[in-house]
Amino acid sequence: MLVEKIKIDFRCFLYPKVSYRHASNGVVCGVEVGASGNFTCHDGLSLSVQASESSYCEPRRNLQEYEDPTVYTHFEIALFHNGDFCNPAKQMICVNGEPLPEEVSSCWSKSDSVAGWVSQEKVQEIFDILVLKEELEPQDFSWDKITTAKSEAEAMLGWTLNGQ
Questions:
Q1: What's the burial of 57, exposed, middle or buried (CB within 10 Å: 0-12/13-18/19+)?
Q2: Among 82, 122, 142, 163, which residue's Cβ finds the most Cβ atoms within 10 Å?
Q3: Does residue 77 lie in a domain region?
C-alpha cells in the first residue's frame, strides 16, 4: 500500500515577530512586525525563517495590520548547529550521517551566514527535508498579541509608533 506524505505548510508555524528598530546611534526609532520561526531539525541543527523590513525577504517590509505570513513570497533563512550559525556552502553538514542534499545547501553563498530571498517553495522543500515534524506546535498568529506588544513598546518609549 502506498502512503502519501502529508504536506505541512511551514507558514502555519511562524509566529509574530515584534522587535525594535534602532537608528545608527543605537536609539530605538520604531517597532517592526514580521514573521519568524525557529524549527528543530535532526542532529543538533535548527532552521530559522524570518521575514520583516530588516530581513532579506520579499516583500521587504513589515506586516500591515491583520496580514499574515502568506503575504511573503521569499524569506531569509539560516541554519544553526548547536546554537552556532553554520553555512552549508562553507562546511560539510551531515544529517543522519548523510551530507545535506544539494537542494538545501545550494541556497547559501560562501560569504553569508544567512540565505536571503529564498522562495516560499524552496523554504517549504528545506522544511520538508530537515524539520522534525513531531516537534512542531502550530502558532496563533494573533494580531491581539501584536497590538499588545506594540502598545507595551510605545508605553516604554513614551511615544506612539504611528506618530499620533
A1: buried
A2: 122
A3: yes
Residue 18 three-state SS: strand
**CA 131 to CA 64: how far, in whole Å?**
29
pLDDT tens sequence across 82-111: 999 999 999 998 888 899 989 899 999 999
Strand locations in the chain (E) = 15-22, 28-40, 45-51, 74-81, 84-86, 94-95, 98-99, 114-119
Burial class (CB in 10 A: 0-12, 13-18, 19+), 79: buried
CA 83/CA 103 separation, integer angstroms: 23
The answer to whether residue 61 is domain-embedded is yes
Establish if 3 belongs to a structural domain. no
Residue 119 belongs to domain spanning: 13-136
Q: Flag whether 17 is in a domain.
A: yes
With contact defined as beta carbons under 8 Å apart, do 88 and 103 qualify?
A: no
pTM: 0.81
